[in-house]
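Dear Dr. L.,

I hope this message finds you well. Following up on our conversation about the binding site, I have prepared a predicted three-dimensional model of the protein together with NAP. For your records, I am including the exact sequence and ligand specification that went into the calculation, followed by the structure tokens. Please feel free to forward this to your student if that is useful.
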Amino acid sequence: MPQLLSGKTALVLGVANRWSIAFAISQAFVREGAKVILTYQGERQKLTVEDLGQELGASDIISCDVTQDSDLDKLVGSLKDKQITLNTVVHSIAFANREDLMRPFVETSRSGFALAQEVSAYSLVAVARATAPLMAPKDEGGGSIMTLTYLGSVRVVQNYNVMGVAKASLEAAVRYLANDLGPSNIRVNAISAGPIKTASARGIKGFSKMLEVANIAPLRRNTDPAEVADTAVFLASDLGRGVTGNILYVDAGFQVIGLVAAD
Ligand code: NAP
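The resulting structure of the complex is given below.
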């Protein structure tokens, strides 16, 4: 079978460990022939991400805390020095204070709200602005930027709280970025994944309850990270060339469910 991403280079932000959605995406990108560059947030994850990068055959592994403009500048500078042209950027990053995911939303602190917005939503804007100039010219395919979101942006999901509001902001940012970058043939989309057991997910109080959606989702199962990754391949590939400004649900269909009749 032809590889869908051969000749393409992808920058993937957000691999923390092998359970990260970004790692599943990186594996699928490599399977489809892409060259992958990974970033990690700080010294704490350096060794793990270096090991995972080696396993993947990543062409580079660069430190980048997305709240630091200086880190983004260094990242872009290092890619420019190596004359790298990007075809795809994956933003798979979110953070909120644990306390803000534990208590009622109405009690969210001003600083906790700002932090969740900064790391989980604004960083997409900063990453898109920094990396767009590195993307292929518009007549050579332009580029595809994608982020990861969750249904808590449009529905109330208990305990998702401040992160739900950050995801609403992230999804709106996807639409505005798609409009700004579309003339350069750069597409911007989000994948709304169903609940998946990862380090971030474990920070949400009662996360195991969220996995019970498998009992009522149309496909009657939970979301496999590999399914999210294959959708990321589609968005990164030329097959997705007409898709921008979209939120694609990869959640076993759970988002269509309203009321479920008791048996
Ligand atoms: P994860 O493995 O914990 O990934 C989250 C990543 O964000 C980590 O690599 C983390 O790095 C990184 N990060 C946080 N603050 C950062 C910063 N300032 N600079 C750079 N990186 C930073 O969990 P995940 O579930 O795969 O999450 C990836 C994305 O998928 C998130 O946007 C999440 O909201 C979204 N999502 C997850 C689910 C789910 O059920 N798991 C469902 C829908 C959407 P450190 O570990 O070093 O902090």
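In brief: The chain has seven helices and seven strands.

With kind regards,
A. P.
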